[in-house]
Amino acid sequence: MTAPAHLYITPAYLNPAQADKDKAQLQQDSLWAYDQAWLGPDLWVEDPRHQLLDWATNNKSLVNMEANLVMSFKGQLFLEAYRLLTARWELPRIPEFEAWVKNVYRPGAEAIYPRYSNWGAWGLLGCTLSDIILKWDRSSNIFRFNQLISKATDDHGALWIEEGRTNSGIWYSYFTIAPILRVAQLLPVDKYMLYDPLCWLWQYVVNPQSWPYKPKTGIWGFIQNIFKPHASQLELPRKDDWPANLYYVAGLIFDRVDWRTWGQPPPYKGTNIFRHG
After folding, report:
1. Do residues 120 and 162 both lie within one domain?
2. Are residues 117 and 213 in the same domain?
3. Which domain holds residue 247?
4. Are residues 129 and 161 in the same domain?
5. Is the predicted pLDDT of residue 223 greater than 70, yes or no?
6. How many CA atoms lie within 13 A of 220 on its CB side?
7. In the chain, where does DSSP find H-type helix?
8. Domain for residue 8, yes or no?
9. I need a surface site. Which of 59, 129, 138, 240 has the fewest CB within 10 A?
């Protein structure tokens, strides 16, 4: 199956089943490309460049904002795969893929870049990866890293925007911190700006029932769910998935054994970031 020429993603909370269908090929292709690239040419089941070229030659646009977000966080594995292929394994660069990054992927990431929620975090990672691949100046991304953390967190490191997602807030907080931590690995920034947010979230990882941000009830709950969609029940951390992947990497960076050993070690099959630690 070839990549869609014009990718449209149904907003997840409007129609979850259709959203999953819309994302399915992107999810499958990006995971496959990245996992194969991680293994390296000697262990390939199939050359991951096939997926990169398929999307590069067939996908011409991202149709809506949901597509911009989904491509930023799922499609970033295409860019991570490309970096492995050209940097770690020293394979030839692919001009068609770099043109797609410039003309399709990066504009989608740039469209969500200005936000201070999880959207902005993934937009920042998408633009950072794009600029590394395209060899563009990355000083604006360094500035944005500092700005995003400063405005998205309070004095205690709490992600005040993601708190509003109530039952889904632990997950959304993870979903915001993870791409910013990846940016901190890629750019010369102060990683310790993320230490307080990681500590704030950690208390709810080890004791999720203490999460205090509950959804409203009645008509106010209905209205709240329109503007801040959330799950009907508290979404709980998983030791074989999120946020084990995040805290494994953060534990290595900040020398926190409790973070690194909380969940199972990598690889993490269900995640779109830090899959292999």
Report:
1. no
2. no
3. 153-277
4. no
5. no
6. 4
7. 16-39, 49-58, 65-74, 76-83, 95-100, 106-112, 118-134, 139-152, 160-163, 169-186, 195-206, 218-227, 244-254, 257-260
8. no
9. 240
Does an H or E element contain 7, and which? strand 6-7
Torsion of CA 118, 261, 240, 25, to 10 degrees: 50
pTM: 0.96
44 sits in the region (left: phi over 0; alpha: psi -120 to 50; else beta) called: beta
Q: Are 256 and 202 in contact (CB under 8 A)?
A: no
Count structural domains, the chain: 2
Domain presence at residue 5: no
Q: Which two tokens stand for residue 75?
A: 């499609």
Instruction: List Cβ<8 Å contacts ≥24 apart for 36-41.
Output: 36/81, 37/80, 37/81, 37/82, 37/84, 37/85, 37/89, 38/81, 38/84, 38/275, 38/276, 40/88, 40/89, 41/89, 41/91
pLDDT tens for residues 44-95? Answer: 998 999 999 999 999 999 999 999 999 999 999 999 999 999 999 999 999 9
Nearest to 123 by CA among 139, 111, 140: 111
Tally of CA atoms within 13 A in the half-sphere of 65 that contains its CB:
9
**Does residue 206 belong to any structural domain of this protein?**
yes
Examine residue 6 and state whether it is found in any structural domain, yes or no: no
